[in-house]
């Protein structure tokens, strides 16, 4: 509980205007400790997302049932929040606004929605931000303990794809995997390898001025804010990693870079949005990698009984189930 | 007699000092406007090419400069750093209000800086670049006018200070 309170004090409250931070500071600690998202929408109640659903709070920070009694976010609240998060420098966030999110110090991702401006069929920028989703990142050391024996076999790291719907702990798991493959896992006699993390969204390492603020182990190099495809190729050419770890694959370039890494004999551990291997197999580019058996392990995460729970582990052929969580 | 002489010297000294002070302010104004313009040129580069966050850019744009103009940029940056929820416009207004004695800038320049603050950090790089460029252009025109006023009136204020005080002394004696 103290962890999340410390995270909020350190990373989140300084990024909010006094009108919002004073409300959140007054919310009971047991609610805040369960919160994994803070949602702000213009003219809508301030909502805290907890595993059981949304909690609305009034201006004194107390939970209320009726939306009319809840603290209502104003346009000024959102404008000020964006202003503080961008440090009065919206011009420095052009790429982030095009992608619809920005990352705060501490690795917390803030999703944005509003009015987009299109130029040459591409999103030029976003103006009038009307919604924000502040996703609280947590460092959970040891959350990968259960999956490490599946990822490492005979001292070799297997190419692994972590599959999970949003908000089920992909990034948290990847972070702990990075820490363990880098520092070694004594319980299975693994000494650790040079690890490269391509952190396109600055979420895995949560770098501050290029220095990771999360523990990623002593043999980890981080390319912060670098597009995955470029980053993987840069690592292959220059840093000789034993394993490359990256988040949220999706584009054709990502799939091509993964092929390059695997051809170069470098293991890859990556994540992708999805609920199951069969679902991800239907997606372009990544589906092709699965069909050709490029990955040797599939780690599937779920949100039952809690977000981040290991739902299953599959082998090279997705039909080969190595672990299946008990239902109910 | 000695008392009259001492009083006269004091009156002349006071008048001359007022005249010289006004002349110096007149001389200082175009110089400070020029400094603001060069700071804005550097700020434009830090924003457009380095995409440096505004507080850092405001600090660095003074580039070793000292004096009231550098203090103005540094204090604005400090407010933005310490109180993140304050907008650049509010920070600039606050600094201008507290440093009007040190800065030799006139009402027009104050207005231009406030308008600059209202639009600083809110738009993309391209627009920010254009906007600061426009403000620079406006300040250049004011600088020329201020230089003309300086050349025209600086000596006049000095003479007026001395001569005016001498007239007062003659009238009093």
Describe the protein in words.
The complex is a heterodimer of chains A (328) and B (173). Chain A has 328 residues and is of the alpha/beta class. Chain A folds into two domains: 2-135, Beta-Lactamase (2-Layer Sandwich), CATH 3.30.450; 148-324, Rossmann fold (3-Layer(aba) Sandwich). Helix content of chain A is 29%, strand content 29%. Chain A has helices spanning 2-12, 18-25, 29-34, 75-85, 94-99, 148-151, 170-183, 228-238, 252-263, 277-281, 286-291, and strands at 37-41, 47-50, 53-57, 63-64, 101-103, 109-119, 122-135, 152-153, 156-157, 160-164, 195-199, 207-208, 211-212, 220-224, 243-246, 267-273, 297-302, 309-314, 321-324. An eight-stranded mixed sheet of chain A has the order 14-11-15-16-10-17-18-19, sandwiched between helices. The longest helix of chain A is centred in the middle third of the chain and has 14 residues, at 170-183. Chain A is globular. With 173 residues, chain B is mainly alpha-helical. Chain B has one domain (11-172). Chain B contains six helices and no strands. In chain B, helix 3 (68-82) packs across helix 4 (88-98) and helix 4 (88-98) packs antiparallel against helix 5 (107-119). Chain B is elongated. The mean pLDDT of chain B is 89.
Layout: helices, strands, pairs:
The complex is a heterodimer of chains A (328) and B (173).
Chain A lengths: L1 H11 L5 H8 L3 H6 L2 E5 L5 E4 L2 E5 L5 E2 L10 H11 L8 H6 L1 E3 L5 E11 L2 E14 L12 H4 E2 L2 E2 L2 E5 L5 H14 L11 E5 L7 E2 L2 E2 L7 E5 L3 H11 L4 E4 L5 H12 L3 E7 L3 H5 L4 H6 L5 E6 L6 E6 L6 E4 L4
Parallel strand pairs in A: 10-16, 10-17, 11-14, 11-15, 15-16
Antiparallel strand pairs in A: 1-2, 1-7, 2-3, 3-4, 5-6, 6-7, 8-9, 12-13, 17-18, 18-19
Helix pairs in contact in A: 8-9
Chain B lengths: L1 H47 L5 H7 L7 H15 L5 H11 L8 H13 L5 H48 L1
Helix pairs in contact in B: 1-2, 1-6, 2-3, 3-4, 4-5, 5-6
